[in-house]
What we know:
Chain A has helices spanning 43-51, 73-78, 96-107, 112-125, 141-154, 171-186, 198-204, 222-227, 229-241; strands spanning 3-14, 17-28, 32-36, 58-63, 66-67, 81-84, 159-163, 190-194, 207-212, 215-220. Chain A has 242 residues and is α/β, with parallel strands linked by helices. In chain A, β7, α6 (171-186) and β8 form a beta-alpha-beta unit. Chains A and B meet through α2, α3 and α4 of A and α9 and α10 of B.
Amino acid sequence: MTELLQCCELSKSFGKVTVAHDIDLSIAEGEAVGIIGPNGAGKTSLFNLITGTLQPSSGSIRFQQRDITKLNSATRCRSGIARSFQIPQPFSAMSVYENVLVAATHGARLPAKEAEAQCINVLEKTGLLQRANVVAGSLTLLERKRLELTRALASNPKLLLLDEIAGGLTDKECQSLIETIHKIHATGVTLIWIEHIVHALMAVAQRLIVLDFGKVIADGEPAAVMASQVVQENYMGMAADA
Amino acid sequence: MACTLIILATAPLWAGRSDLRFLSEVFLYLGLAYLWNVLAGYAGLVSVGQQAYVGFGGYLLFALAMNISITPIALLPVVGLAGMLIAVPIASLIFRLHGAYFAIGTWVIAEVFRLSAAQISSLGGGSGTSLPVSVVKSIAASRSDRESFSYWAALVVLLLIIGLMFLFLRSRTGLAMTAIRDNELAAESLGINIWRTKFMVYVITAGLTSMLGALIFMQKLRISPDAAFSVNDWTAFVIFIVVIGGIGTLEGPIIGTLLYFLLRETLADLGTAYLMILGATAILIMLLAPKGIWGLVNARFGIELFPMTRRVIFNKD
């Protein structure tokens, strides 16, 4: 399989706080990767580094064999890296449709007609089409999370980063979200999904990575990783405390 | 809308001289308000130095008109272009600053402009200069014709600004700018080049602001560094208008301009008390309706005077 994303000795620190410590990571095209780790382990920071919201202190990132370390997040989005934010970041005064249109016209760089079709297509996929003309600021939290996913999809990503998109959902909602994500993955989009709801993650992920203190402490087949001693000690211990 | 336009366009035929002057002033302020609104309300570039371009436009018009024998009205596009050109290096410089530092930076630039203008002895140095009679005559032979011309020029430039803004906001870049207004983090992560979008907005508004400045001083026939680069006249009042009307909307500047002139005309005799009332009004509105008067109306009734929202039209099948 071809490599899609490579992080080489990626480090980021804010003063004495290290959020990423020599992360070496390689994601192949078409993979569905789950990331777990305790709060503050550096999961979202890793996403920020991959999308360009944060600049690394050292190390490099390659996407499709191209060094993207110096590119800003807009350029990275256009080259095919999209994300959903853990705390939804809607364009509050714009309609849901316009929110998605931003991604289709600027992220996917589609001309007007195609952008429109793209929006309707993804809105339908994520079940937000009926809410298309509503102002995004009036959406419920769950709808906002869906909007995050919808916008990310509208930018035609090759790599989709999902940040705790299932948090706060009921079991039923979670189930339908898993189905949606399965469908997205089936179309050939590579996924990296940070999630605390482990069973949701296990339903989709083919590979599981565990982060702690900005380091990769386990990486492999999900069931094996979950059963491993390092996870039982570090992660499950933390989870039980929380 | 068309009716209003016809009434306004024919104003020189029915309105008195002072009314005409007053209306032109309203147009010019509305234009300034629209430009500042795009800059601060949409692109998030809170400039308190737009007087730099008002004064630049005024001074450039005077300098050109006094040296080349072309009617000043024909020089307006040249002034607009020059405003855009000079904005390019300025933007490259002050875009390195953010938030409050950006605001201060724009003010510093405007002061540099004012001090530089005061050094030009051929334009009267610190005390300024008047347009020579020959230039004034070249606008129009009679005083009433000249005032009609200035009025129409103000109306045309205002319509140009509103029209451009409407087209701009409906374009790809307009969508980007509205997104930036609402959430910069999300806008960038969805593929919008924030720096380039803001740069474009800054340069275009600088050009149009220069044109307005040229018109303002063409009407006054006299220019001086203190009048041309006045932070009160060309920025503080404009901010007042936009903030009380509703920042980041197309309707807000109109409401704000009307309210500003209403207050000014009714309270003008009160002297300094007028400014205190203006300040108190601003504070009250900011506390009670942070999104301005239009924000309040829009939240309550959901009206849009300028239909900007892009919609999905559902087929009934």
